[in-house]
Amino acid sequence: MTEPDDRRTTGSGGAARSATFRLVLLGILVVALLASTGILVWLLADRRGEADDVQSQREEVMSQTEQFVLRLNTYGPDQLDDQNHLPDYEKQVTDVITSKFATDFEKSGLPIAEKVVAQSGYARAAKVYGVGVESMDEDSATAIIAAGLSGSYPDPKHPDDASKRVSTAADVLRWEVKLVKVDGEWLVDDYGLASGQDAQ
């Protein structure tokens, strides 16, 4: 009587176990690959999100800097009230500056503008040529801006016609503007002529 071939039986069982092991290993590798791909996508998206946030903050700083320079340097006799004050001008400037800076502005800058407008009919306008961020962290930033300032006075040849005015040549200046973030909003805290720029 022939004895069963144990080697053949063992070989078939080993092959089945080997195939099962390969399938399990393949499943584990696929899961690991999918997990690592997911982590990589998440990391890239997170970094991109951070870069987008930084760019968004830079754009806000530049926009607020531009608004500040335009508002600070745009006023005229059409804004005077009955008491020879410039309430709209005051509001347009204080809306984009810190309360500390607003105190200084209301003590010095505003009275000077009101006086020159009331006494001589002077008007000023500004045109921004360029703005960029010099430095920035989470709650403070420094921007550099170049703008042209032009003034105008009532035409002495037509004293009774308010629409007739004499314009002055535009001065182009560069300012260094300091901003801080207050309650999530960038506000101007100080400014001055940029390094190397002579007062005109």
Summary of the model, kept short:
The protein is α+β, with helices and mostly antiparallel strands.
Describe this protein's structure:
This protein is of the alpha+beta class. It has a single domain (41-193), classed as Nuclear Transport Factor 2, Chain: A, CATH 3.10.450. The chain contains three helices and five strands, in the order αααβββββ. Strands 1, 2, 3, 4 and 5 form a five-stranded antiparallel sheet that branches. Strand 1 and strand 2 form a beta hairpin. It is rod-shaped, with a radius of gyration of 35 Å. The mean pLDDT is 85.
Which secondary structure elements does this structure contain, and how are they paired or packed?
Layout: H1 6-72, H2 87-94, H3 99-120, E1 123-136, E2 140-154, E3 165-167, E4 171-182, E5 185-193
Antiparallel strand pairs: 1-2, 2-3, 2-4, 4-5
Strand content: 25-35%
Main sheet overview: 5 strands, antiparallel
CATH architecture: Roll
Order of helices and strands: HHHEEEEE
CATH overall fold name: Nuclear Transport Factor 2, Chain: A
Radius of gyration: 35 Å
Structural class: alpha+beta
What gap, in angstroms, lies between the N and C termini? Answer: 120 Å
